[in-house]
């Protein structure tokens, strides 16, 4: 049995099917999805259908992304602290259009799926899987604001700016990077630093390789660090804009 982590999908079902095939995933494998299943390409509804079905076949851990929460807020008509116009511009338009075509029963099943997403997953090897990050120096169990699990960018920004010569036992070393052996995140695409492959900084592995834009989707074996990628999403969905 292998354990894989999958980056942000953003409605790109074609890419998800491609990476699962390229990694030769079987029903014996565990799949950890880092969130942001929706918003971007045209198949947000189909991605959630696929994940609901996949969870019936094998062990799947589905983490909550900020776009998943935005979609849930919209589906449940919660408008407090929700800039619907901004969401619409950042991928929500494709999600709205997708949900206009489905039955009430299917929409209800999707709401249930989104409501039951996990804020994070901590495995028995002290490896943390979370969409965005956390801010409490003692770890996720002491986080003050749960929204930061799917909105925080400071964990990744700190990892990027950290002097690689600084050792974990140094008094200046960020305590957040000593709590877990490894932390796997999405949320902030590595394309922002000119990369399209998973990037490790300190103990943090960023697996969002820009599938919402012009990058590929990535699946990574968390034990061996071997990874597989789809074709760039703008090529798979050549007649769409995604979030570009």
Task: Give a description of the structure.
- By secondary structure, this protein is α/β, with parallel strands linked by helices.
- It contains eight helices and ten strands.
- The protein has helices at 13-22, 44-57, 66-75, 84-99, 104-115, 148-151, 154-161, 233-236, and strands at residues 3-6, 30-33, 60-62, 120-122, 127-130, 182-185, 199-201, 204-206, 218-221, 227-229.
- The strands form two sheets. A five-stranded mixed β-sheet has the order 3-2-1-9-10, with helices on one face. Strands 4-5-6-8-7 form a five-stranded mixed β-sheet, covered by helices on one side.
- A hairpin with a 5-residue loop joins β9 (218-221) and β10 (227-229).
- α3 (66-75) packs across α4 and α3 packs across α5 (104-115).
- The longest helix has 16 residues, at 84-99.
- The model has no long low-confidence stretch (mean pLDDT 96).
- Its EC number is 3.1.-.-.
- Residues 1-148 form the Calcineurin-like phosphoesterase domain.
Short description:
The chain has 244 residues and is α/β, with parallel strands linked by helices.
Give the tags.
244 residues; 5-stranded mixed beta sheet; 10 strands
Radius of gyration: 17 Å
Give the number of DSSP strands: 10
Q: Quick check: average pLDDT? A: 96
Major sheet description: 5 strands, mixed
Fraction of residues in H or I helices: 25-40%
Which spans have pLDDT < 50 for at least 5 consecutive residues?
none
Structural class: alpha/beta
Termini separation: 37 Å
Order of SSEs: EHEHEHHHEEHHEEEEEH
- Across the major sheet, the strand order is 3-2-1-9-10
Strand content: 5-15%
Instruction: Report the total helices.
Output: 8
Outline: globular
